[in-house]
Amino acid sequence: MSKDTRRTNFTLTGQFIAYVLADNCEIKGIRLTTTEGERYIKLSKVLRPISAQILQPGSWIQVQGSQKIALKTGKAKFKAHSIIAALPDSAGFTDLPVAPAASAPLPPPQDLALKQVGKIRICQKSSCRKRGSQRVLSVLNSAIRDAGLDQEIELSEMGCVGKCKAGPNLIVLPDKTRYTKVKPQNIPKILEHHF
């Protein structure tokens, strides 16, 4: 352990928001709303495949693990070792709004039209094309069409992003998430995560 960091155990209870994906589209961590605000928690390698089958956005969980605190900055990095179901009242969440249930009525169609259009940009320069960006683009195009997301996602080609050896490169807007070494089989995970 470094002199610049201190390692302690933690227990956080909160509402699961979303998964955080690595460049290869595998789950790396989760976002959790707690009484102190939103937190990013890295998952141990054992938890990653299990959590994908169990956690649903809006579910209440208790996360236990270890944290590293940088002594100079005071910033903490969390790593989860176990996740269990929790009740909102047990963590002092009485003041926080509860996420709507899955059985809540869908918004009217005119409200859907007001949503911001997402954009996916994919590099089509020669180096990325040699690594399969044209194939990724065609799979992405058909996946968007099949999912009925034509009106919600704008697909466009772009120039070089400077990571030619890690191609094909893809950027999802408006959150500016970058993906490298994208394979056609990763497209459904990317679409599910962002849209």
What global shape is seen? globular
Main pleated-sheet profile: 5 strands, mixed, barrel
Instruction: Indicate the proportion of strand residues.
Output: 35-45%
Mean pLDDT over the full residue set = 80
Strand segment count:
9
Unreliable runs? 93-115
Give the N-terminus to C-terminus distance in angstroms.
Answer: 40 Å
Which assembly state applies to the chains in this document? single chain
Order of helices and strands: EEEHEEHEHHEEEH
Radius of gyration: 20 Å
- Given helix and strand content, the structural type is alpha+beta
Plain-language structure description:
- This protein is an alpha+beta fold and 195 residues long.
- Helix content is 21%, strand content 37%.
- The chain contains 5 helices and 9 strands; from the N terminus they run E-E-E-H-E-E-H-E-H-H-E-E-E-H.
- Strands 1-2-3-5-4 form a 5-stranded mixed beta barrel. A 4-stranded mixed β-sheet has the order 7-6-8-9, covered by helices on one side.
- A hairpin with a 5-residue loop joins strand 1 (5-21) and strand 2 (27-34).
- The N and C termini lie far apart (40 Å).
- Residues 93-115 have low confidence and may be disordered.
